[in-house]
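Lab intake sheet, docking and co-folding queue.

SAMPLE TYPE: protein with bound small molecule
LIGAND NAME: nicotinamide-adenine-dinucleotide
LIGAND FORMAT: SMILES
REQUESTED OUTPUT: full 3D complex as structure tokens
PRIORITY: normal
SUBMITTED BY: R.K., bench team

The fields below were copied directly from the construct record.
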Amino acid sequence: MGGLIDELEKKIKDKKAKIGIIGMGYVGIPLGLEFAGTGFSVTGFDKDSARVKEINSGKQVMKHIPAKSMKEFVKKNNGSSTTEFSEIRDMDCLIICVPTPLDEHEQPDMSYIESASKEIGKNLRKGQLIVLESTTYPGTTREIVKPILEKSKLEAGEDFFLAYSPEREDPGNKEFSVSAIPKVMGGLTDNCLRLTSNLYKNIVSETVEVSSLETAEATKLMENIFRAVNIAMVNELKLILSRMGINIWEVIDAAKTKPFGFMPFYPGPGMGGHCIPIDPFYLSWKAKEYNTEAKFIELAGEINRKMTEHIAHRIGRALNDDKKSIRGSKILIVGVAYKKDIDDMRESPALRIMDLLKHKGAKITYHDPNVKNVGPLKSLDLTQNTINEQDAIVITTDHTNIDYKSLGKHAKLIVDTRNIMATVKNPKARVIRA
Ligand SMILES: NC(=O)c1ccc[n+]([C@@H]2O[C@H](COP(=O)([O-])OP(=O)(O)OC[C@H]3O[C@@H](n4cnc5c(N)ncnc54)[C@H](O)[C@@H]3O)[C@@H](O)[C@H]2O)c1
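RESULT FIELD (auto-filled):
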């Protein structure tokens, strides 16, 4: 086995190791770009042939990854993508970045990890390193990935190497690129961990090596549960404080001057994205196997889900003050991506609010500089007329390149879930913080 490790270690050191990324999405693409950028040859594997075609033609696939970077990835001739999984055999290191959603019963859907592992298993050869990056419950790498790979008759830790290293990518966050974020990792064996650390040291400034696969898996979940619970807490506090006539954003600004023991979280219209609303339930599901309950996780989910209903209710009250009802009112939603300055609508609370209002009979339109279509709806330009003819404008996402001054000047009523209108001096519109 020493030979296999030394061989792969040398290939990694010389940047001769071929990297295969399974799943070229929000996580896989930036990771592939990062490895290719440091001189490695990278092959993206994806089941979606349209996605593969787009990447290979150097197209911009995601708003926060510039077309220039995508072109460079292909042009340098060290980054290509394929649907041909037999090429896995030519790879030295394989990194799995496939989705981990919840199924219709709100339980972990492991089908993507299973199918990616099967593809690797069919093409596995001695001396390869397999790293799972998808967010998942503790035990996945050992209990799901390892047995599937070992169907090849090769033994994990002996014939091939296995590790888990969660992705901490924050799409759209310019302050922290992939390389600036320390990378947590756990290996099946010490050698698996050593190889994984050597690999990632090429693209990150710091690796954090933990004692087991499960510790690394739990670390990622803890980070996201921490966010989900704190967002729920601040959302609940917003409801309580607003009844008391207290502005929660002012409270947070004051509280965050405390130099220790406090970290600001901000309220909003609910929780969105592919991670925070979903990942915590991977742990609460697994907790049941150990006869324990994850009460914080369940409660946070419940509070965050209810926020959309609260916002819809608040819009109804605000219209009522103008002697109008939701039914028949023209309501324009500003920002449908789940957070600022990205184009990702997955689990976006704005979509749920649009649905709720539509069901109540509102005439719904939207504006989002980053999202051209939502189903049959097209993003409307925020002209003076468009703004003016709305009965209400609801700000659900506070993208940077929106003219809030113009909204404040021409709108009748603005329901602001992000407190962004606080940046506009003396708006003519009636602004309701919700
Ligand atoms: N998006 C984020 O910001 C983020 C951050 C941290 C962690 N994660 C985690 O990373 C993982 C991937 O998330 P994502 O946002 O990149 O997903 P994504 O949906 O953007 O991309 C996943 C890609 O995998 C492909 N795919 C699905 N099954 C496949 C298979 N069997 N073989 C090959 N390709 C397959 C899909 O076609 C898609 O292109 C998830 O576990 C997620 O929770 C995501």
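REVIEWER NOTE: Residues 22-28, 45-48, 51, 97-100, 112, 115-116, 119, 134-135, 167, 169, 171, 274-275 surround nicotinamide-adenine-dinucleotide (CB under 6 Å).
SIGN-OFF: pending second check by T.M.
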